[in-house]
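Lecture 7, part B: from sequences to assemblies.

Below are the input chains for today's worked example.
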Amino acid sequence: MRIGVLTGGGDCPGLNAVIRAVVRKGIDAHGWDVIGYRSGWQGPMTGESKPLGLDSVEDILTRGGTILGSSRTNPYKADGGVEQIRATLAKDGVDALIAIGGEDTLGVAKRLTDDGIGVVGVPKTIDNDLGATDYTFGFDTAVHIATEAIDRLHTTAESHHRALVVEVMGRHAGWIALHSGLAGGASVILVPERQFSVPQVVEWVERRFEREYAPIIVVAEGALPEGGAEMLQSGEKDAFGHVRLGGIGTWLAEEIAQRTGKESRAVVLGHTQRGGTPTAYDRVLATRFGLNAVDAVADKDFGTMVALRGTDIVRVKLSEATAELKTVPAERYAEAEVFFG
Amino acid sequence: MRIGVLTGGGDCPGLNAVIRAVVRKGIDAHGWDVIGYRSGWQGPMTGESKPLGLDSVEDILTRGGTILGSSRTNPYKADGGVEQIRATLAKDGVDALIAIGGEDTLGVAKRLTDDGIGVVGVPKTIDNDLGATDYTFGFDTAVHIATEAIDRLHTTAESHHRALVVEVMGRHAGWIALHSGLAGGASVILVPERQFSVPQVVEWVERRFEREYAPIIVVAEGALPEGGAEMLQSGEKDAFGHVRLGGIGTWLAEEIAQRTGKESRAVVLGHTQRGGTPTAYDRVLATRFGLNAVDAVADKDFGTMVALRGTDIVRVKLSEATAELKTVPAERYAEAEVFFG
Amino acid sequence: MRIGVLTGGGDCPGLNAVIRAVVRKGIDAHGWDVIGYRSGWQGPMTGESKPLGLDSVEDILTRGGTILGSSRTNPYKADGGVEQIRATLAKDGVDALIAIGGEDTLGVAKRLTDDGIGVVGVPKTIDNDLGATDYTFGFDTAVHIATEAIDRLHTTAESHHRALVVEVMGRHAGWIALHSGLAGGASVILVPERQFSVPQVVEWVERRFEREYAPIIVVAEGALPEGGAEMLQSGEKDAFGHVRLGGIGTWLAEEIAQRTGKESRAVVLGHTQRGGTPTAYDRVLATRFGLNAVDAVADKDFGTMVALRGTDIVRVKLSEATAELKTVPAERYAEAEVFFG
Amino acid sequence: MRIGVLTGGGDCPGLNAVIRAVVRKGIDAHGWDVIGYRSGWQGPMTGESKPLGLDSVEDILTRGGTILGSSRTNPYKADGGVEQIRATLAKDGVDALIAIGGEDTLGVAKRLTDDGIGVVGVPKTIDNDLGATDYTFGFDTAVHIATEAIDRLHTTAESHHRALVVEVMGRHAGWIALHSGLAGGASVILVPERQFSVPQVVEWVERRFEREYAPIIVVAEGALPEGGAEMLQSGEKDAFGHVRLGGIGTWLAEEIAQRTGKESRAVVLGHTQRGGTPTAYDRVLATRFGLNAVDAVADKDFGTMVALRGTDIVRVKLSEATAELKTVPAERYAEAEVFFG
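Predicted structure of the full complex, as structure tokens:
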């Protein structure tokens, strides 16, 4: 038996740990051949691949990124994409695929299974916004990095009686903001799930200053002020003719400065959150996902995705898996509000 | 209303995060007074306490240890211990207690509730061996530290074609060994749940050397060779008259060296695993435990303990909570065996 | 004998380590009293101070910031500022001062010594731009943090064939950019000491892409493109009426994107570089500075500053110490150019 | 022109950074070929080598260990070793060698130069005990790791009123103990340069307990109690027939426990100190060493070694370089004594 593996979508610590687990278990436990397709769905379309032997996955467990490369190519949006995949798999003698990726990658996996190609999915979203699984790998690493940054910023905030706004990832779901804000002892946490009131934020900030501590405000990149959606859409050009889109972190720091008269600064963590070596938590989760995806292939349980439920790895239908975005529920946000101000 | 909080048993990163959450929620959400009893159950026996205001928990979220101190004092093993506690609580006007600790501390909490004193428990075991909860805080930090050490040791193992044995915590349960071994890419993982065969370990070690990589063997402190329980009990004295008890890590490194003829070294991680700043994961879990313990007190739901189930914090009866040691099940160990050798 | 200590200017990891060393050595080795003046030179002007006993410096060695607070107050710019200081020292019975700070703080220290008040200086500049000393504490920590961020960004750059621009501190001197760029394996390092040619940067970036690796460009916040000084000064307002000043990192990322057609992103590390626990290197250096400053006071060697030369702590005249900005010399920049492209 | 590079002796973070710098500068700046000899001096004896192109050094800057492997082989202790080297270099067309290693490796480098083979040395000693250079790479990483461990142990020491002994590397020189002890806020630092009095150590420990803080004792592996040299030499066998040599850390913890009646534990950091990714400081130093070694080869300045003096990289004669062990001088130890007790 021969299986193929591929990674699609954005960068996420733990991808290589999944690949390694697939290769180790596929070869050592089942005696399969494993080949890696390059650049997401583009690989099985163009035939670009490389054999993955035991040696090829030595030393990748701790590395960020993906040794297979990634892309956002969608075979259903390309003429004859699915037929190309079918031809590649036939030529390579590949019996089944393991596809590691987010909503788009898994959506393709589902349709391919419906079209008769056996695929098992491994969920990947650094934002942790997939309903079918308790957690996804990469999330713990992102929270860890954001928390380390917040820890460092407390010092500067307090030495200079300054408000510091930290913008973290999270366009549609505020999980990274919620967890890093709780872990970092933030004075305010703002998430996309709930538009915030600037006067309320200012009140929390001022209450914090009154207690003689300097506030840290953690804001998800997708959070918006009340009525703010339109405001933030208007980009304009700077002196060099570049279009500037106001990031919410910088915008909020300026608002706070103007309304409180206190110094206020923004730090935008950006891509530092999604690169580098995964945390131990993410390595274990990614490894278990890879091992269990191989089990699903062995069981010919295609059209499924591995998922974490409590401490167990289970399988869920791909059709259910991608149905719904998992956002921060009101009661989890309410938990955090105890620490505001 | 006034509540007391105390910490018992061994050191564990996240204790202060629980205390902070109890204080913040008790004062800010409920308007209660909170006092901290010192040194576990000794505090309510002797009356040693300090008021915990909002200021007293600033700046403790990131700190290891416990600002309340700890002990292994058991009021049921001291004459009149329970009456002393009753008297202290009456004198201090304390209506309920939150007790943070392991099996012993929670066992006392259960009996005190039976004896009419309202206690809510927060579970603490760095070894993660409590059946009633998916995870306990401190465990992720211990795994993180052990994994960082293993990452570093790979280098040395490979540069010198040397076997390295890493002894981690875990007297009765091998969770830290299992998770850090998986995360660190160990060649062999040995746990207390299953006596190991030295010839089998040697075979894995030699297979690893044949692949031209150097083996890392992760061993829980409580793991034993087949028939080894008696062997390890015989301590003898060294040149200074000190009794020497052979740690399993050192013992195993010597066995491997003798049987393979390869250089072999042991590293015993020891107390570095249980001190210092908690990981983001543990800070979030500890904080949520603290918040939910306050809810339980508000609900007068005494004799319960907070626990993690999936992503939810739930309450379980203390009587059930401490009934059973959670050990590594055979199927979780089998997952890891794929990577042996 | 009684001495005072104060910290002035911006935040810098290691300030507390200096204070601790001053207190421990002042009390334990000399039997002096030590008092801490708050908020830089403002403290001795207003009399705001606190006694610094051994207990007050327990547990501060690892903390960022300063337990004394800081300010940019200059007694020579305030009416009667020097007389206020003289009066405070007389009232407090303080015989000499240790002033920890940058160019401004040390400039005041020098003038006060000329005016008959005994001051010893401890140099502090996170940018490492003080000519009289090989290194200053805080610099190694900043380089460490920037390097960790660059390490993480490599992953993302390579997984997505993307150029990443990292903006680090350094308004007038490029030391942090030079060291973190070397340590992080940057493809281009840009410093304030030399205006850069955008076409040259683009050439390096494209050469790097041709080698199939993604480029990381490290740029000091004070670096400028040729002829760029004027361009960057023109701020304009965004949709919210906030003035936007184009940071060089963001500007450069956009230029690279436009000229190469490749995706390009900027990460601005900002205040994360100057907060949090100091590295071991900085703790040792800061501690030795503090100890040696006490020696200088004991020798009544006022008007001097402690400095690192090789592995020795020496004293230099404050008049010489602040004479000259230490910038990156051409030969050090040439060393790094080997790695460009 | 073609040059060879090799690494000898024990593991040390930064070796790969030197190799990378040699390759990048050799190829890009000079247009040379570079080949890597494997396993120290064994490589040029047996002819085992690999070409080092630009690709071969991508991605190695951050890795511990050495991509060339290492050994302790000495051509002057093997029959015809030097002639073998001469033959290999002739066959490979290699004009000069860069040898990265400690006292032994550099001693061979010196003799080979005397025998007409052009060698430039790069000093490597994690213990920092080489007189000719201010610092060597690897040392800062070792101090960093030891300091992180000490930071974590403070928590446990204080929560449990326990003395903790931390054994760090340093057989003949106490630099790692001195720097990590200063950086970690140790209560006692013990080095090989000065035999220690157990009663004095106990006095410091007890004074520390009286101040209500728990003592951390940092001890170099080569430190000895007064009159202790003989005592520690007598090994005996344990129940398994293994010879046990009492490590000084464990021995001292037991002594302290017996003499103070307080709990006392030892942690032996061991090989974790010499593996893994180098600190930014060590990467910069190693990189500069590599670059400057290439300059020395270009200048045909053989028989020299690169060294750090202040912030400059200089060249020193190999004959002088290895003449003397750099131990901790009395005045540096006296600096630290201020913090004892």
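Note for the exam: Chain A has two domains: 2-138+278-321, 139-275. Keep this in mind when comparing with the next example.
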